[in-house]
Design a protein that fits this description.
246 residues, mainly alpha
Length: 246
């Protein structure tokens, strides 16, 4: 699998260090404000204020732009090679991977819940159909989530590409196995705070879902496809939970 950041399959260690440090910095920008801000600035079903909504958009935008900036510093405009407008075949792949992602998520999530207990953490749990302006809040959260999900794709795909290059350079067998494992575990661990720090739940419940999202990228070499699958999956899951919330 080409790294897809430049015409060369190989990036220097310095460039990967810049990229991965920008991922780490961006993640800090995403999660640190939650523990420092007054509750009135945290957008949720109890505080759906315009000020909190604007601040959330600011946070997720910084989260995304810090990672793009790191890529820009490391590889210049070549970072755009991660994206292209999907042709018809890739739109079909997007739909297929969305269905597969949902199936894998249901199976792994159900097993995780049986083995490690239930967790609370989905934003849909904070609002119900009885919440005032519920559909406006839903649309806003989809817009905010779109920005964050694109940032999350960078968080998952950059370690995937970095580990793939490292495994190849060390002549490890099955480099895609190691790169996918690294990406899936990192992605799962980054969601620990969202799912009550239940390590077993996130590793089993999220890692396999991430593997399908990685597969969407590997198959198409297009971050728009893995982003699209991720966004559709989150939106559908959010909608289902909203509709069944009591």
């Amino acid at each position: 699998m080409a790294n897809n950041l430049s015409n060369s399959d190989q990036l220097s260690g310095k460039k990967w260090l810049i990229i991965l440090l920008s991922n780490l910095l961006a993640y800090g920008c995403l999660v640190l404000p939650g523990g420092l801000l007054p509750e009135s600035l945290i957008f949720n079903g109890r505080h759906p204020s315009f000020l909190a909504a604007g601040f959330q958009i600011l946070i997720v935008t910084v989260f995304l732009l810090v990672q793009i900036s790191g890529l820009q510093i490391a590889v210049g405009s070549n970072w755009r090679h991660l994206f292209h407008w999907p042709p018809a075949r890739e739109w079909l792949w997007l739909v297929a991977f969305f269905l597969l992602t949902y199936l894998v998520s249901v199976l792994s999530g159900s097993l995780s819940q049986k083995l490690f207990g239930a967790v609370s953490g989905n934003a849909a749990a904070e609002i119900t159909l009885r919440t005032p302006h519920v559909w406006l809040i839903f649309l806003y959260q989809r817009f905010s989530s779109a920005i964050q999900i694109l940032g999350e794709e960078f968080l998952a795909i950059m370690p995937l590409l970095a580990m793939n290059q490292l495994a190849q350079s060390l002549s490890w067998k099955h480099p895609l196995f190691w790169s996918n494992l690294t990406s899936a575990v990192i992605f799962a661990l980054l969601h620990l705070s969202t799912y009550d720090y239940n390590l077993g739940y996130v590793l089993l419940g999220l890692a396999f879902t991430r593997l399908v999202l990685n597969w969407a990228f590997i198959k198409t070499r297009n971050l728009w496809v893995s982003f699209g699958v991720h966004f559709l999956f989150d939106t559908f899951a959010f909608l289902i939970l909203l509709l069944v919330a009591k």
